[in-house]
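Hi everyone, sorry if this is the wrong subforum. Our group has a chain we'd like a structural model of before ordering constructs, and none of us has done structure prediction before. Sequence below.
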Amino acid sequence: MPPTNLDRTLSSILSSRLSQGRLRRLTIPSATSIDFSSNSYLSLSSHPAVKAAYISLLTSHLHPQPGHSLGSGGSRLLDGNSAFAEDLERQIADFHGAEAGLLFNSGFEANTGLFACVPQRGDVIVYDELIHASVHDGMRLSRAQRIPFAHNRVYDADLDALLQSLTKGPQGEAVKSGRTNIFIAVEGIYSMDGDAAPLKHIAECVEKRLPQGNGYIIVDEAHSTGILGPQGRGLVCQLGLQDRIWARVHTFGKAMGCSGAIVLCSSTARNYLINYARSFIYTTAMSFPSLASIRTTYNFLASGHADPLIKKLYSLIHHMHSLLADTIKRHAPSPELFRINPEVPQSPILPLFTNKARSLAQYCQDRGFTVRPIVAPTVPMGQDRVRVCLHAGNSVEEVEGLCRAVEQWVVKAVKSRL
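Answer:
Right subforum, don't worry. Here is the predicted structure as tokens:
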């Protein structure tokens, strides 16, 4: 088929992105390379006990009961609902100390559905500038006003000042009286920097500036599910804020090792989402194997079997950060060439900041370590980095091997600049 004018237009756009070094490509992970890239922080998808429990659950439901099928057969509002799905929602809500929950096929669909339909015309969404792309897409579909605040800054002339400003001006009276709703969107752990939201301060600030109770905090717990809080319940539970957060989005494609997501909220909000969240209404429901994988990993967490994995994970985090800090002390690279955050990480995500992210990533990949360069526009200009993700399945030897590779690259890069 000869190229059309549209093909030529699209090809030109792709060529422009290629010339800027920003062209995205699909790759297939090497079976022999050591994973320091995926979000499977607890390595549950390859854990023998989890896999065995999953197969057992599948077998027990599918073989003796011919009424159970692999596929769901439609949206949950038509033929795709099941007692298993509703029981799973109650189990997850109970585990996280929430009133109710609604399953979505992915975290992206949960965020787009939630933010698109809940805020009404005249409401305001105040969001951390580093909030996930799915929240941005949901906000664009919303009828509410959108205002960003500087990442994780609460009282330093940002969120606090922003909420104060909303109580003044044309809409100030409606905000102060509680007639206008203010939604505050943050993440538990931010996927590129690996830092946690100062959630207690955020809750205190919102309650102080919006005393009528019209401030509704929504926390995306995608990267904090499974690794923070008692038995991996997340940041909200770790801080005991269950009753002060309006909604939480927990996703299962990271530490949980499967796929899908749930919005935890009130029963009223759940019913509202069933009626108005288009990403829930107009999509085929999750298949039984997907639901079974979610139940399997939640059973694993609730039993306490993941606790040693979480402990090991944080031991590796401290060890790697210490090794990288020693590398910087020994070789004193410029901050533009190589730096890390000086504080011990709050999560398994360790960004290695460098203006030569592609070079460092390729150097590590050539030595058998899977890491990825993250460059603008995924991160702000001037904040390119190699994103390292640690896993409970990594060994101390693997961590030390990656750190040696990073140090070797730093030494060569420093010498080349002399």
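For your construct planning: The chain has a mean pLDDT of 95. The first strand starts at residue 34 and ends at 35.
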